[in-house]
Amino acid sequence: MRPAAETLVSQLCSNAGDQASLKGPEWRISLWRGEFLDPRTETAYRQHVSSITALQLRWGLAVWALLLLVFALPDYSALGWSTDFVLLLVMRLAVVGCIGLLYLQVRRTPMHAVNGVLTTLVELIGLAGFMLVFFLRPEIVGWTFVVVLLMLFTLFVAIPNRLGMALAVALFGAIITLVAMHLVRPRELLELLALFLMLLFPVATGWISAWRVQVLQRQQYALMTLTLRSNRQLQDEVEQRRLLQQQLQRQASTDALTGLYNRHEYERLFAHELARSLREQRPLSLAILDLDHFKRVNDTHGHAAGDEVLRRVARLCRDNFRAVDIVGRLGGEEFVVLLPDTSLAQAGEVAQRVLEQLRVTPIEVGEAVLQVTATLGLTQLQPDERQLDSLLQRADQALYAGKAAGRDRVVLVQADGSMQMLVG
Ligand SMILES: Nc1nc2c(ncn2[C@@H]2O[C@H](COP(=O)(O)OP(=O)(O)OP(=O)(O)O)[C@@H](O)[C@H]2O)c(=O)[nH]1
């Protein structure tokens, strides 16, 4: 079955999966019409090819109309200005008129070209009208017969049409040609049979040629559609993988509860900033923020409420430290912040601003509205320091001093251990 089409498709298919899917019910093709058996697939295909088919049909119609008009000249030279000539001319003009109307319809609605009904109608009118030539110019019956043979073949090839309809029109043309020739001059049965076989020849070759083209075009369409579908699937998969990878990266680098950097990630970022600060001899400060009496929140409102407070404070830190500052969760209710290009005094101002923001931001947890405060210990990198551990230790000492002194404050600690308390 359709070996040429299948060979082409198997050449085009790069893997067995494609070939298998092309054999699905969606893509099955009628053996004699050369169209998809599935009406939805056929409609989609016709829509896909409607504009190019309409263009081809318009060209075909234009050539047909031109030939009809041009052949009026030999009519005139043979018949002169006679009733027979006028009759033939009227027939030619009527058919040209029908062709013109079809041309306009197809230009307005390209789907008429693939639908084929109007085309078939005009072809029937054209063929029937052409039979007049047999009666009015019996002296060239042989030539007229040859022209009919060409027309029958052309029905399939030159004018894109639906195969079933083209076959019906061609058979109709073959039969009325026989009838007309018999009426012009009665013929023996054998002669009629021979003429009929001759008429069937262009019908059969035209049908086979058009069928092969139709099947090939549809197979290619099926292949293209499958390729587009698998491309889309592939794109979706790539997008899903990208999102998954992003999610995994986020999970690997952030703290699940607060969304702040986890220890592994902030240590990596801190190391990078430390190296940059030493290389460029820029100031670098570090802060530890610890919520005050957080245990009470848990004890009074429950652990879930405590979690919510941690999330809100984390967001507040993200919003109120600068974009260049690196905020991480040190553990429990403690956060650590690295402030690049920032002296201790500047870091103190930023920290105070954050504390102030915390004071004026009530945190709603269920029915309760909580007022949370925090204590911050801050220190600055010294020119001879190569590790952040000593900074963390100093900031921690400052933090504990702040807690001991009454909490809700910023404590700055110098390298020599001297401290300065900033109370809001
Ligand atoms: N809800 C919640 N609580 C946590 C989490 N991590 C630590 N905690 C709690 O945080 C509380 C910390 O308590 P403490 O170390 O005594 O500190 P504090 O109550 O804030 O008191 P000060 O720091 O001295 O002001 C403990 O009750 C921990 O259980 C967490 O992820 N979620």
Provide the fold topology.
Layout: H1 3-12, H2 16-22, H3 39-70, H4 72-79, H5 83-108, H6 111-115, H7 117-130, H8 132-136, H9 141-157, H10 163-184, H11 189-253, H12 263-280, E1 284-291, H13 294-301, H14 303-320, E2 326-331, E3 334-340, H15 344-359, E4 363-365, E5 368-370, E6 374-380, H16 389-404, E7 409-413, E8 419-423
Parallel strand pairs: 6-7
Antiparallel strand pairs: 1-3, 1-6, 2-3, 4-5, 7-8
Guanosine-5'-triphosphate binds at residues 257, 290-295, 298, 303, 306-307, 310, 332-333, 403, 407.
What string gives the helices and strands in order? Answer: HHHHHHHHHHHHEHHEEHEEEHEE
| Radius of gyration (Å) | 44 Å
- Given the helix and strand composition, which structural class is it? alpha+beta
Low-confidence stretches: 1-18
What is the tally of beta strands?
8
Question: Helical content, roughly?
Answer: 55-70%
| Termini separation | 89 Å
Globally, the shape reads rod-shaped
The unique ligands bound to this protein are: guanosine-5'-triphosphate
Main beta sheet strand tally, sense and closure: 6 strands, mixed
How much is the average pLDDT?
Answer: 91
GO cellular component, one term: plasma membrane
Subcellular location: Cell inner membrane
Transmembrane segments: 55-73, 85-104, 116-134, 140-159, 166-184, 190-211
GO molecular function: diguanylate cyclase activity
How would you describe what is shown here?
- 33% of the residues are buried.
- Helices cover 68% and strands 10% of the residues.
- The strands form two sheets. A six-stranded mixed sheet has the order 2-3-1-6-7-8. Strands 4-5 form a two-stranded antiparallel ribbon.
- The protein is an alpha+beta fold and 424 residues long.
- Residues 1-18 have low confidence and may be disordered.
- Residues 282-415 form the GGDEF domain.
- GO terms for molecular function: diguanylate cyclase activity.
- Pfam families: GGDEF (PF00990).
- Its cofactor is Mg(2+).
